[in-house]
Amino acid sequence: MDADGNEHDQVVLDRETAVRLVAFNTNAEQALDKLPSTVQNTIPEHHELEERNKQRIPPPKSGNLHTLLEEANERYPNHCVVVMPSGGNHMGGGMGSGIMMHPLALPHNATKPTAATMRASRRGDYTLSCLTYCGYGHPYMDLDGALVVRFI
Ligand SMILES: [Cu+2]
């Protein structure tokens, strides 16, 4: 989502552009309150988020997706976002492998959004991914190729 609240599947940047990434846990009410109103107004409602989860996450072999996600949310309410080259290994990536910024912790009780500025120094496709195990939906918490850095 950009600062005007428009949602994008992919953002293409020119190399060496500085980007400010602002991240938040959708359960961190106080953090949400501090976002610009353009962004606040376009954050999907709870039922819309559930609908998205249903589209992204394959149906569980046993149990009900809704219940599994609710339980996951209670047990593992925190997330952490990282930007890494697409195709990279979630766990083995490490800091030396082209991660564009240090991971941003997204606790459920954060009082403000978390922000970092990164500079796109290498061209390529990047994935936004959750680094903190957050239960059932965790393996699906990534946006492959959400950032593309092009060389001009
Ligand atoms: Cu996660």
Walkthrough of the structure:
With 152 residues, the protein is α+β, with helices and mostly antiparallel strands. The chain has one domain (11-150). It contains four helices and seven strands; from the N terminus they run ββααααβββββ. The protein has helices at 29-33, 37-40, 46-56, 65-75, and strands at 11-14, 18-23, 79-85, 104-106, 114-119, 124-130, 142-150. The chain has a five-stranded mixed beta sheet with strand order 1-7-6-3-4, with no helix packed on it. Strands 2-5 form a two-stranded antiparallel sheet. Bound molecules: copper (II) ion.
- Helices and strands, in order, run as EEHHHHEEEEE
Low-pLDDT regions: 90-96
Main sheet attributes: strand count, strand direction, barrel closure: 5 strands, mixed
The whole-angstrom Rg is 16 Å
Give the total of domains: 1
Bound molecules: copper (II) ion
Strand content: 25-35%
